[in-house]
Design brief:
2 domains; 6-stranded mixed sheet; single chain; alpha+beta; Immunoglobulin-like
Amino acid sequence: MVYALCHAEDARPKCLESRHLAVRTSAVLPVSLYLDRDGQSILLRRGLLAISAPTTDAWQSLYNLYWVLAVAAGAITIGALVLFVTKYRARPSSGTAQHDEDGKVPVRTVLVIIIIMASVLAGAGYASFHAIGVYNNPPNGWNDPNALHVNVTGQRFSWSFNCTSGCGVPAVLTVPHNKIVILNITSIDVFHSFGIPDLRVKADAIPGKYNLIWFQVSTTGTYRILCYELCGSGHAFMIAKLVVT
């Protein structure tokens, strides 16, 4: 979702100072109530049960807002269609459809519509930029000395993790709860896309470039790490685990 791009030959501190960040979003698929083979709720893994994390909270708040706006827009549209079809239909007594006398829309009605639309757009814009701010700004910055910095490398068809504290083994990233974790993501072959759906974070893994994302989880658990970019015949099996202890 949030990422910063740096050339492979650049030093890590220079990469972390980059502020050319962008946000990407991902979709959540419908799921059942079963548990997966790791004992984790599929509802949780697919996002229907939220976990406590800043990125998750920001994403979920924005999703809820757009969901409410979508339902409201649909209800207003369908309601208006029903009203107009009922009010202005042709009647047997007259044989013609009913029309307003002059066909003009009152200025007051136009102003009310403009004010409502402007308010909705302003609210949605504010909420969107607030969510972007959460993803673009770790609590103590990208150079936080107290954060856990992890180098993530994608290759067909696996993820590898490297940090000074020995946090990763092949296909497993282990981090402590309540710890800010900053991931420095790249690839050594083709384009991949690193994502942790439960935490609502995702970034492209591009050969020769580094993308930054961060997260902080307050509860222990095991979460799946997936590849979201079609990278070959083994793409569906490019899965790793995030273990929060």
